[in-house]
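Before going further, learn to read the protein records used in this course. Taken together, the tokens spell out the fold as the letters spell out the chain. A record is reproduced here so that you can trace the correspondence yourselves:

***
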Amino acid sequence: MVYTAKELKDYMLKYPPIPNYYSGNCFGCVNPVGLKLKFWILDGIVFTSYIIPEKYSGFQGLGHGGIIATLLDETSAWTTYVNIKKFGVTQNFMLNYIKPVFIDTEIIVEGKIASDEKTHIIVHAHIKNLNDQILVESNSTWSLPDLKTLAKLFNKELEELEEIHNTFFNPINKFFEKKK
């Protein structure tokens, strides 16, 4: 299903975002100096709205390319979390800048699962303006390691990572149970 920017904005006004109880320092969603993104889901499509502030500008009123990439990467991460119900790790990220993304202009960022395998998924994400023009798109591959592997990767004890996992996913699971 394809939704217009207006339909997605209306949905965001009508329904609460997916809960986020992550206690870390993620630049995309919870860091005080980060993007502070909130996400919604509709028919498997995870989306958010954002206005790139001047402090994140690149050249001559354009959004900085790194911020644009972060918007797509974070949306792809949340697409993984809420559709697969697992933490994923970016394995490969390809980006195509199509049209300028200006600062101080509202945009919609969407992600959806393009392919779902046992050990990895592919997420397609894009940024569009309020006229539904695609400005930037990405395709990313996400590995889906188990918690034991993630604990080693992050140099954490397995119990600590299990606690982070439960604190993050239990409210999300309850959110989806209420929607049924």
Summary: Residues 51 and 106 are 4 Å apart (CA to CA). Strands lie at 40-42, 45-51, 89-97, 106-116, 120-129, 134-143.
